[in-house]
Amino acid sequence: MLRIYDTRARQVEEIAAGRALRMYVCGPTVYRYAHVGNLRTYLLSDLTRRVLERRRTRMLVCQNITDVGHLADDGGEDKVLAQARAEGRSVAELARFYEDAFVRDTAALNLRPPEHMPRASEHIDLMIELIAKLVEQGNAYTVPDGSVYFDVRTFPTYGEISGNRLDSLKPAHRIDAVDPRKRFHADWALWKPGTGELSWDAPWGQGFPGWHVECSAMSLRFLGSRFELHTGGIDLRFPHHEDERAQSDAAAGHEVVRHWVHGEHLLFDGRKMAKSTGNVVLLSDVTSAGLDPLAVRMAFLEHRYRQQMNLTWDTLRAADRTVRRWRTRVAEWSESPSAPMALDYVKRVEAAFDDDLDTPSALRVLRELERDDGVAPGAKFETFLHVDQVLGLDLSTDIGKARVLPAGAGELLEARARAREAEDWTAADRLRDELAEMGVRVSDTAEGQSWQ
Ligand SMILES: [Zn+2]
């Protein structure tokens, strides 16, 4: 059984997986490219999905596309609108452009696509319906300018995910603390007045929904009023997920989400990845540097999802070498007689996956298997391919590919074979070093020398 850290329960809990399991993932805001730090969060949901699917659990995943309403809380202009103007595109063009880029990046990282990927702008009616219900129940109130606020004091368990309970939230910590339209400083907008390209008619006046209410409305619509898992980046715990939980639970009349799961931050070169400081790496930067996109996935797997990790170009290059080496090995092993999987290794890897997605331990077990001369190559082949269903590193891509020696390497290999026959070990070592410089690794076996 998969056990995973539940942020609200503050402990690792077993995921009771039946035949089907539903998961909501807070999706991207599509007004710029997702950087690799953003993409790490989506690997968390992909791993969860793959580990559960291995047990034949049918996964139903909903991951929204935020193309309206995000990050306008500070009273400034919606970032989608501002960026569209800066790029000279319409809002719709801008949002589709970055949505397409996001889908391409996630595909390159082998992240399985969600079953539902609703765009916020196409589900405004659901949000209006939810807001109307909250107003009717007394969980939300309208103000004369056309805004609607959630009345947080009607939801006493607010703060259970992040620990930010209402009595400890100080008005000074909130930018809009002194907003006279609010009954209480921690209330937030469900609907904001506005006109123009990103606005809709609502019973309270023309405007657009707040970001938090988008996720409540779409998760309730696509997954129902009870679902098992909700994932997102650690920075979404507060206020986004607290607000989402309050809205959804108030509307449903019970706890909607069984487990809240969060992925930790990614640092790059020791610093937070942020556009404002120029410390941003995109997947296209990685591939432009000649690295496989799945080197990023490999680098992430070397750390557990809830561990803060520091990515560097060195760790990316090391991860790239490991991925390529494993693909070569798998291709070599594929030529050996078939053999059943190395079950003791499989069990240890799967136990690591189940133990709160302990991918670093799983990779250590695989490195041990790679070196274990007591396991037949055919068994290594079967085991690596089996485990790759969760790792998602495309370890079988090199199978059947012709191995091509660089120019001149064939002559050096022949010369080295002759040197070994003549027992001229100095020459053999020198030739091995020369070959290594060309990228050809020579090893000596009982049947003579072989190369990679
Ligand atoms: Zn969300």
TrEMBL record:
It catalyses: tRNA(Cys) + L-cysteine + ATP = L-cysteinyl-tRNA(Cys) + AMP + diphosphate. Keywords: Aminoacyl-tRNA synthetase, ATP-binding, Cytoplasm, Ligase, Metal-binding, Nucleotide-binding, Protein biosynthesis, Zinc. Binds 1 zinc ion per subunit. Its cofactor is Zn(2+). A motif ('KMSKS' region) lies at residues 272-276. Zn(2+) binds at residues 26, 215, 240, 244. Residues 18-319 form the tRNA synthetases class I catalytic domain. It is found in: Cytoplasm. InterPro entries: Cys-tRNA-ligase (IPR015803), Cys-tRNA/MSH_ligase (IPR024909), CysS_C (IPR056411), Rossmann-like_a/b/a_fold (IPR014729), tRNA-synt_1_cat_dom (IPR032678), tRNAsynth_Ia_anticodon-bd (IPR009080). Its EC number is 6.1.1.16. The keyword Ligase applies. Monomer. PANTHER family: CYSTEINE--TRNA LIGASE, CYTOPLASMIC (PTHR10890:SF3), CYSTEINYL-TRNA SYNTHETASE (PTHR10890). This is Cysteine--tRNA ligase. The lineage of its organism: Bacteria, Bacillati, Actinomycetota, Actinomycetes, Streptosporangiales.
